[in-house]
Design a protein that fits this description.
The complex is a heterodimer of chains A (301) and B (267). Chain A is α/β, with parallel strands linked by helices and 301 residues long. Chain A has one domain: Aldolase class I (TIM Barrel, Alpha-Beta Barrel), CATH 3.20.20.70. Helices cover 31% and strands 20% of the residues of chain A. An eight-stranded parallel β-sheet of chain A has the order 3-16-15-10-9-8-7-4. Chain A has a four-stranded antiparallel β-sheet with strand order 5-6-14-11, with no helix packed on it. Chain A has a two-stranded antiparallel sheet with strand order 1-2. In chain A, helix 7 links the parallel strand 15 and strand 16. In chain A, helix 4 runs parallel beside helix 5 and helix 6 packs parallel to helix 7. Chain A is globular and about 55 Å long. In chain A, 60% of the residues are buried. Chain B is of the alpha/beta class and 267 residues long. Helix content of chain B is 20%, strand content 34%. Chain B is built from six helices and 17 strands. In chain B, the strands form three sheets. Chain B has a seven-stranded antiparallel β-sheet with strand order 4-3-7-1-2-6-5. A seven-stranded mixed β-sheet of chain B has the order 11-10-9-8-12-13-16, with helices on both faces. Chain B has a three-stranded antiparallel β-sheet with strand order 15-14-17, with no helix packed on it. The longest helix of chain B is centred in the middle third of the chain and has 14 residues. The chains are: A alpha/beta (301), B alpha/beta (267). Chains A and B meet through strand 5, strand 6 and helix 8 of A and loops of B.
Chain lengths: 301, 267
């Protein structure tokens, strides 16, 4: 028998496969394609204290081997989310991780407090969205700011928290250490890499927001490197993501030090990706006679 | 049962029917569930181009399990599709979006308006309206107004089987010189309800015209999209009222649309 179970901050997951925030809604749309019961966790689209309109269109553009997005964290607000999205996800035997976004420390705290009595397993704190002015990015690019916001949220959070780190920094290890020192239970990375595309025919920016977050297979080597550096800098678990398209990619992140992994942009390309990664990890375990998937975490040093 | 899914279709035949406009029939089980106004997303074999291309359904042959798509070559994805020959495998996702509200056409005088590459979805729609009516009276009360760049009048013959076709061309080489609105004016056409697909300036003009005349108008929108199934929130349109799903004034074109009552969207 193969054991695909992993544990993060005392929460057990049936397998390491999760969805990257913002690429899977609250699971509803992809439940037509994937049995959500088969996933380790569903990580929801970021939710704020009030509804957010997001950015003007065009919000997405394709790039070589990837895509740029500048959605701007459009979301229906925490009240609708609690009423509609959490009950939907509770129907499934999967862990629920709610991604929380905000423009100020008090925004984050308000959401975290409203989630205190909700049946969700963990909170992922988005301090790294590059597409919203004051969308938390300031908190995610300076270690002192990251430390302060983490401490403030951790003091109020009922569930274990995961600080989601931005790759748009010089030293990712320093950021990981700041989150750990402030009491974060885990970290996830990478969020998207800030990019730009120009339409040479219209001589204008391809995205209405001018810049956007780059995701997809094009960013995978950067993500693996950062997951490796972060995982070797801290003792708390790391959830790795960035361009994962198949089980081989997922295994690569785990060998680099990730306990859990998340599928992001590739959900848009192949809606069955998450389920295929789950199956592929089992195949890899059989091939190499691995009894516990957790045994491979961070074994490439 | 109607279910969205990704599957491998097979190219049945393809030809260029106007400059850079390609007409492709594909064999797919999705044909059975296709509704007029819906679209499919088509994947390239070139893996550097990840996102599928949303393309409207031009015709569905449910009996033989085939879909017809007519598209313009606009970039490297559609350029690749244009080179496909019969027998080529082609991954598609569908069927996506809601179709045109056919019931709004019942017993009414109808305008079907298409501009440029917005013309193809009008064919399956015209067919459905004609079949719904089940008699020639309805067919006679459908005016199909189509706008082209020049006299390459792709699909106009197909359309003429289901209604009276009126043509406008930008260069005046066929029909009325100008756009579809000019054709309506110069031919003195009247209707109760409009169904339309085309470039944004045309849709804005139709929205304004319908408001002035107190008519209902249903327009099909397009936008850059990633997932096609309502998850990424890439392809939104501003809405007059707060949207029931998003709880802000944004609706997802891929899932809540692509067809909207013109007065309900801010375009």
């Amino acid at each position: 028998m193969f054991n695909t179970q992993i544990t993060i901050a005392g929460v057990t997951f049936k397998n390491p496969v999760m969805t990257a925030s913002g690429t899977f809604g609250s699971g509803m749309e992809y439940s037509e394609f994937v049995d959500l019961n088969s996933l380790g966790a569903v990580v929801t689209k970021g939710v704020a204290n009030v509804p957010w309109e997001g950015n003007p269109t065009p919000r997405v553009q394709e790039t070589y081997g990837g895509m740029l997005n500048a959605i701007g964290l459009q979301n229906p607000g925490i009240d609708v989310f609690i009423e509609r999205d959490i009950p939907f996800l509770r129907q499934y035997d999967t862990r629920i991780i709610v991604n929380v976004c905000g423009r100020s420390a008090s925004d984050y705290v308000e959401v975290v407090e409203k989630l205190a009595d909700q049946p969700v397993d963990m909170l992922e704190i988005n301090v790294s969205c590059p597409n919203v002015k004051h969308g938390g990015i300031a908190f995610g690019q300076d270690p002192k700011c990251l430390f302060d916001i983490t401490k403030e949220i951790k003091a109020k959070a009922r569930q274990p928290i995961i600080m989601k780190l931005s790759p748009n920094v010089t030293d990712i290890a320093e950021m990981a250490k700041a989150a750990e020192a402030a009491g974060s239970d885990a970290i996830s990375l990478i969020n998207t890499i800030t990019g730009m595309k120009i339409d040479i025919h219209k001589r204008t920016f391809a995205l209405a927001n001018k810049t956007g977050g780059l995701s997809g297979p094009a960013i995978k080597p950067v993500a693996v490197r950062m997951v490796y550096q972060a995982a070797n800098a801290v003792k708390i678990p790391v959830i790795g993501m960035g361009g994962i398209a198949n089980a081989e990619d997922a295994i690569e992140f785990m060998l680099a030090g990730a306990t859990g992994i998340a599928v992001g942009a590739m959900n848009f390309v192949n809606p069955y990706t998450t389920a295929e990664v789950v199956k592929g990890i089992e195949t890899y375990m059989r091939q190499y006679h691995i009894e516990n998937i957790s045994d491979i975490i961070g074994t490439v040093k | 049962m109607e279910q969205k899914r990704k599957e491998t279709a097979v190219v049945y035949k393809q030809q260029e029917i106007a400059t850079d406009i390609y007409d492709m029939w594909i064999t797919t089980s999705l044909a059975a569930q296709a509704k007029p106004g819906q679209f499919i997303s088509v994947y390239t074999h070139d893996k550097s181009a990840l996102l599928p291309r949303p393309i409207s359904i031009c015709e569905a042959d449910r009996e033989n399990g085939r879909l017809r798509i007519v598209y313009r070559v606009a970039g490297k994805g559609t350029a690749e599709f244009s080179r496909y020959k019969a027998g080529r495998h082609i991954d598609i996702l569908g069927t996506l979006g809601n179709g045109f509200p056919l019931e709004k056409a019942k017993g009414k005088k109808v305008f079907l308006m298409g501009g440029g590459i917005g013309i193809p979805p009008m064919l399956e729609l015209a067919k459905a309206i004609a079949h719904n009516a089940g008699n020639e009276v309805q067919a006679a009360s459908v005016d199909i107004i189509v706008g082209y760049r020049d006299k390459e009048l792709f699909l106009s013959e197909d359309l003429s089987r289901y209604g009276k076709v009126h043509i406008a061309t930008e260069d005046g080489s066929a029909g009325t010189k100008g756009n579809v609105m000019d054709a309506i004016a110069s031919e003195g056409l009247e209707a109760d309800v409009i169904f339309a697909c085309g470039p944004m300036p045309m849709l804005r003009a139709i929205k304004k015209y319908a408001a002035e005349k107190g008519m209902e108008a249903y327009i099909s929108l397009e936008e850059r999209m990633a997932c096609g199934v309502g998850a990424c929130l890439g392809c939104v349109v501003k809405t007059r009222e707060v949207d029931h799903h998003s709880h802000v004034n944004n609706a997802r074109i891929c899932t809540d649309g692509p067809v909207y009552a013109a007065q309900n969207v801010e375009i």
